[in-house]
Every structure is written in C-alpha cells, then in structure tokens.
Amino acid sequence: MLAAARGAVAGTGLPWVIENVKTAALARQDDLFGANGVELCGCMFPGLRGQMYEARLFETSWWVPPLHHRRHVWPQTKMGRPPKPGECMQVTGHFSGVPEGQRRMGVPWMTQAELAQAIPPAYTQFIGAQLLAHLRERAA
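^ that's the sequence the OP posted. Answer follows.
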C-alpha cells in the first residue's frame, strides 16, 4: 500500500508526508518520487529526551535535515508495568501507565488505544516547521 500511497500523493504536485513505524519500507534517501526519509526518536527532542523512545519514519517530498540520534542511555520500562522514575517508555501496543504516557506526550485527552497509535506532537512540530521553511524557500 505504501507504493500506491506514495504515487498518489506525489501525483498531486503538492508537498506531502508519509509517516510509519521504523520497520516500514519508506524511502530513506532520494528515490524516483524525489522522496526524502528521516527517522525521528524521542531522544532527539529536549522535551522527550529521557522520557520516551518512539522511533518513527517520515518520508517527505522535500529534504528534511536529519537530527542526531543520540544513543539510548536511559533504561526502558519493561512491558506490562508503568514506568519507574528515570525510565523511558514506549507508548505502543498494550502498554501500562496511560496517565504517564499522556503526560510525557502532552496529550492528556487521549485514550490508551489512541496513544498507542499516536506520534509525539514534537515530531509533528518538527516536520511542520521543516515544511514551512521549504515553502518559504520555494516562494522566494
């Protein structure tokens, strides 16, 4: 489905973004659609560093500068129990600690099922800022 989705959005001539999990077959460099891939993880963002590891791929129709992927040095919460102080968590699947996941991601209104499918807002803000810079550059 990714190839079909990529072809459909590329055919619009508009800027586009496809997001998926780290193991998805998204472009990681220029391909025939001019796509650019970048991986984002919680450890790349000051507000999430030491809070969560949540690797996601973003494929865009414009170049996005890669961020330094810091080594994962914080212990990770074991699945099945809420995180202890000082532990990183992954808000995926049937994780424990919904209130803590809501707090760390900054989305207190989301349910456990919604959190498990969501990306941290910091990722969206980063990609959105890159899109705005791209559009400004294109308009100049």
